[in-house]
Request: fold
Amino acid sequence: GKKSPIVRLGTKKGAQLLQWLCGSIYALTVLFVALRMFPIWTLLIFGSLFFAIDLCRHVTDYHDEPAKVSNCKFIAVALHFSSGLLLALGFVL
Reply:
């Protein structure tokens, strides 16, 4: 059978873990800015927060409905693209 992390954890625990992982992106950025390891402009990453919230809500609501939760990949791609772009822009500025 499958041995992917989501199969091992279960869908409910996987949805809870996703919230922590999404939150850590923003928490670590704030921490690194506070420690002066990242420039202040990297806080632009918060422009992608809408996608993180949307992704977490969607997965939490539909974790036990495979047909509905499969749409989360589009939200995840939007989060990955926007957060990466904004973080990179923050380093460039």
The first helix runs from residue 5 to 9. The CA atoms of residues 29 and 43 lie 7 Å apart.
